[in-house]
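User: I'm writing a short methods note and want a consistent example. For LysM domain protein, I'll paste the sequence; you return only the structure tokens, no commentary, since I'll be parsing the reply automatically.
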Amino acid sequence: MHVVRHGETLHLIARRNRTSVNVLLRLNPKLRRRPNLIYAGESIRVR
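Assistant:
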């Protein structure tokens, strides 16, 4: 799990975790509806 920090994007989180945005979206179906809108404090799966 990754807790989103202020200023982070899915692209940045994916790159830091050596994965892709598509993988993050597959692991986190709730993000598919709004992939450009994530909030600080939100938990997302990265693996």
